[in-house]
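Case study 2.
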Amino acid sequence: MATEIKGKHAVVSKAPAELYMVFTDMSNFLNFIPEDKKAGVTADFDTIRATVQGFTFGVRITERNPYSFINMEDYDAPFAFKVSLHFDPAEDPSKTDFHMDFSAELNLMMKMVIGSKLKDALDKIADSLQAVSEGRVPDGVDPEILKNFKI
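Prediction:
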């Protein structure tokens, strides 16, 4: 049975089309990885893959619905998963109601070890996007990384 995790909603101060374009090309994410962490990371338009401490982990975009959602799935990862990024219009048309959904086939041990961490990660991404769109540096993020981050 799949583990389903719904991330929190965050209102990002960019229109859905603008925010969507940041995520549509996986190679854009290479700009946000510190130089000392880039070894073993590869990306192209549809995929990004990294090897960390001997484990390979990748994500592949499987579906794009312009300015609405992007669906992704595992690519050379240790377990099967799917991620959906949603770019819904907010009440203010210049803003986006952003959220992520995650689904994975986790055995009981994996679910106990990483289940709550996955929810925390989805929420952190939403909070960070909201902060950056408002000109704030998200908690726990090196301001140097944000020099290349434009949304």
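The helical segments are 16-23, 108-133.
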